[in-house]
Design a protein that fits this description.
An 8-stranded mixed β-sheet has the order 3-2-1-4-5-6-7-8, with helices on both faces. With 484 residues, the protein is an alpha/beta fold.
């Protein structure tokens, strides 16, 4: 086969197909392969009919169709299938060729794969892709990381097919070495978990506390999307709430309240625990999905305890206004926590992530795209070493402006018996983060009392450790190193 293709794609599920068509639309010749050959034939005869897409029935044919240096993009399930496909491809490639993993791989796996392939002279890119099937087809957010030498080889393709912001800038730029691309996508998905939970809580409060019909709730979300809450998730929520089934009733009311997940939110929360970062809202969003999955147990508990949900007795319009403010400031916390995690891991692994550029990459195409990402980009341009988004002057003012409404909403939810783990944990984080003094002094005293774990003193320099013989029987022996 004469080498004419600019890039090869392995895997023709919806994302692989749509990326191939997107690349073809932008003038690139794409060769495609799928383990099931019939899927290649079907794709060429239907969705790819009339395009320059080339079909391959074997990996050898795929590689043979590619111009040098060869670029092969894997759109297969994360985990072992990626390793299996890399193992099958390596004997067919040459030094300087590029393997791209476009799935939701765990970032340590991408680091391992880059290092292993480097020993063979093959370049590796692990790239996060956000935007779902529509984004893949018409412009996703793309977050590539891995071998720096590979970036110039894939940059023209990736930046051409990526979503564009108003000034034409592509929502794709180099993230960093090793697993940085997939790490940033993992954080993106963690923020997505938090965002979705917060939006669901706002819907639930309007439905349960205010008794609003879905059409009215949809109108509220549409209004919010015209203001500072403008975002993809708010936009599609308005559409979902208004969508009717064939019998004229809302589809939403027919969907079982048991949420699924693919694991990226859990990975973000687990990574935060490993690095000591309080990713509280995102953690609660993961646990909220876990709780929702216990449908049968919740039904039994509901029968045992009965419903404690009450109706809100105040002015409905005032509560809706408060709810919009509470949703906004809670969303800011979700992004702030995600950026805290990126900062910690970047410093530990030496990735030097460009936080303003990441905000730009998320400004279009992706699931968490929101108007205030421009403000996040500006915040990190003003202060690249910003410790926390909440202390940026612009966001600090907005948090203070929304604080009282936030407290009224969370307080009302508690009194009415409506769970708001996202908004409540976001508020608790906000309160804790801005406290100069927390009750952890008692916690440290308890640790020292039962385990001789030592403590630091406010009247001595940091780094000096002390132990008290609280019972008179403990002696002066202390436990292993104190860590804070």
């Amino acid at each position: 086969m004469t080498p004419t293709a600019d890039i090869g794609i392995v895997g023709l599920a919806v994302m692989g197909q749509n990326l191939a068509l997107n690349m073809s639309d932008h003038g690139f010749v794409v060769a495609v392969y799928n383990r099931t050959g019939a899927k290649v034939d079907h794709f060429l005869a239907n969705e790819a009919r009339g395009t320059t897409v080339i079909g391959a029935q074997t990996l050898e044919q795929l590689v043979g169709a590619l111009k040098r240096p060869r670029r092969v993009m894997l759109m297969v399930r994360a985990g072992q299938p990626v390793d299996d496909m890399i193992e099958a491809l390596v004997p067919l490639l040459e030094p300087g060729d590029v393997i791209i993993d476009g799935g939701n791989s765990h970032y340590p796996d991408s680091t391992r794969r880059m290092q292993s392939l480097a020993e063979k002279g093959i370049l590796f890119i692990g790239t996060g892709i956000s935007g779902g099937e529509i984004g893949a087809r018409f412009g996703p957010s793309i977050m590539p990381g891995g071998s720096p030498e590979a970036w110039p080889l894939i940059k023209p393709i990736f930046q051409a097919i990526a979503a564009k912001v108003a000034d034409g800038s592509p929502c794709c730029d180099w993230v960093g070495e090793e697993g940085a691309g997939h790490f940033v996508k993992m954080v993106h998905n963690g923020i997505e978990y938090g965002d979705m939970q917060l939006v669901s809580e706002a819907y639930d409060l309007m439905r349960q506390a205010l008794g609003m019909p879905l059409e009215e709730i949809s109108a509220v979300f549409s209004d919010w999307n015209d203001g500072q809450l403008n975002s993809y998730l708010v936009e599609i929520t308005a559409d979902i709430l208004a969508f009717k089934d064939e019998d004229g009733t809302p589809v939403l009311d027919k969907i079982l309240d048991a949420a699924g997940q693919k694991g990226t939110g859990k990975r973000a929360a687990a990574t935060a625990l490993d690095y000591g970062i309080p990713l509280t809202l995102i953690g609660e969003a993961v646990f909220a999905r876990d709780l929702s999955a216990l449908k049968a147990e919740r039904q039994a508990a509901s029968a045992a305890f009965g419903s404690r949900v009450s109706s809100y007795k105040g002015e409905r319009s005032d509560f809706v206004n408060d709810l919009g403010q509470a949703l906004y400031v809670s969303k800011v916390v979700s992004y702030a926590q995600g950026y805290m995690l990126m900062r910690a891991v970047s410093r530990e692994l030496g990735w030097n992530l460009a936080y303003g550029k990441i905000a730009l990459m998320w400004r279009g195409g992706c699931i968490i795209r929101a108007a205030f990402l421009d403000d996040i980009r500006a915040a990190y341009e003003r202060q690249p070493d910003l410790t926390n988004l909440l202390v940026d002057p612009v966001f600090r003012q907005r948090m203070q402006e929304g604080e009282l409404a936030w407290r009224r909403v969370v307080g009302a939810a508690v009194s009415l018996g409506i769970p708001t783990p996202g908004m409540s944990s976001a508020l608790a984080y906000y309160d804790g983060y801005r406290r100069a003094s927390l009750p952890a002094n008692l916690l440290q005293a308890q640790r020292d009392y039962f385990g001789a774990h030592t403590y630091e003193r406010v009247d001595r320099p940091r780094g000096e450790f002390f132990h008290t013989n609280w019972t008179g029987q403990g002696g002066e022996v202390t436990a292993a190193a104190y860590s804070a």
